[in-house]
Amino acid sequence: MAHVSDVLSAGDIARFSNLQVLARSVVEGFCSGLHRSPHKGFSVEFKEHRSYVPGDDIRTIDWKLFGKTDRLYIREYEEETNLRCTILLDSSGSMKYSGSRSNGSTKHDYAVRTAACLAYLMLQQQDSVGLVTFDKKVRRYIPPRARPNHLQVIINELQAQKPEFETELGDVFHEMVAKMHRRGLVIIISDLFGDVDRLMKSLAQFRHANHEIMIFQIWDPDELDFPFRQWTQFASLESAANRHLVDPAQIRRAYLEKLAQYRDQVTKGCNRHRISLVPMTTDQPHADSLAAYLALRRKGR
User: Fold this and answer.
1) pLDDT tens profile 217-232
2) How far is CA 57 from CA 114, 158, 234, 272, in A?
3) At 237, which helix (H) or strand (E)?
4) Which domains does the chain have, with CATH numbers?
5) How far apart are CA 99 and CA 244, in angstroms?
């Protein structure tokens, strides 16, 4: 079993101890400004049963049902929280990239630690948080919960992820819109590589459903300044057969122009749909970047 400390350092925890994620738009159960009252635990409204799995709190076992069926089931309740947050983590092949300036960390490693920080922060302020991992399709959906042991559930899933396969963000996000029936905060952690038009259409569906969206776009510095100087073989991390030996000097200008066009499209699309877009690079401490951004949000900027 993975431990929280495997992906979330004591320094990360200390850095976030006094921060609040405040959604700008009105979401279900959320009061503008500071939370009106702290979360008090489970509500009395029963939701459903599910099968017991090792690690579940035995206090939630329905012993009366066990007496009738001789099988262990957990009673689940609808939790009353101020904010429901769902973190969507990109585990596609392109997230495996690691350049010379990223201290051995892949974009996916960086994304996992960012997701862990945000999950911890949400649970510390007594909001509910869930996790979606995906590549070309949704791989795992952990619904939002605010229980004390829920962070360990999320950490275990984050540790189990191995980036591979291609992805089409538009298809995945379209699928998730249908699964998320209650309004809340959607946090996307991804490099956003894919068709921009399809991406924006799917993000518009989230906004139409009154979700607020924050995107943490993960970059390796190599992707932003294309530092290659000698003949280099470039291989797709999502399709092993797709590789090319090229002279970087011949394509650098065209690459940077295409990159600028792409970033402009994404930025304008996010602005149009009132989506917060936060670029992050793997050579910068993720906690520093998150803390600075969340501090600005707290001030209402």
Assistant:
1) 999 998 898 876 765 5
2) 27, 21, 49, 45
3) none
4) 4-27+82-298 (3.40.50.410), 42-78 (no CATH)
5) 18
